[in-house]
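Quick one: structure for this chain?
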Amino acid sequence: MRTKLYRAADIAQALFYVYREIGFDKLIVKVEKTTNEIVLHEGEYGSHVFIPFPASLFPDETDKKAVLAYLACGDAYGYLDVFLKSVLTDIASELLEVPVKVCAQNPLNLRLFRYDGSEDTAKYQHEALKVKLKSGSDFIVDLASAQYGYHAPVVPYKTYLRTRAECFGPVRPFGYQRHMMLQSCKGHTLKAAIRKCHERLYQYFNASLDVWQQHKGPLAEMLKLSDKEYGTDRQKIIDGTDIYLRTMKEGDDKRGQFTVKAMHV
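Got it. Here's what it folds into:
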């Protein structure tokens, strides 16, 4: 069961990075980096919600992943809920979403300065997934931990609490972040417009999973493959999702769908 969990989280994290890169919504124009800190500077936003990821600013793959994950922990569970449920249902007896108060000192610190020069100093709550396997073991699946310098998505529960978290908040049922994403789409605010665009991309993301399953069968079957077969299918689903999402997004971009105006703000 542990092997299946590690494989499920491995693919989920890779797909999360694919989703975040294609649906990137931060206009980063400058980066400053030291040994354990990345400082991001935003430009002036226009009407487009999704912005091409500035890959040239992040030649280091680990830095790129950290920025993709930055302030996107809720997205990991709000937009990958269908995939996570598909691959974890057979091996988990319980799935819970947990708020995390991360440790004050981490391998990496990310800071953001807005276009007007002010720093975003708000304290954001981190989110993770607690998984109890049917064998009885407890784990934390943290798909967005790269923003703190942690890249392994699966950690035993007690180890996570000892090394990555000061404490956990009250647990929530799996699906809580999905519910919050839908709630944030309501109204005619800028935040709602951004979430509506993400909801459209979310539908395309799940459609890409449907295409995979039509050809390859249930997603959970990948977890049972030999190491070689798993490696092959892992790359295929990542590449296939990337191509599908980019194709659908490019089509909507040409029609002006992913703009604030298109979402009636």
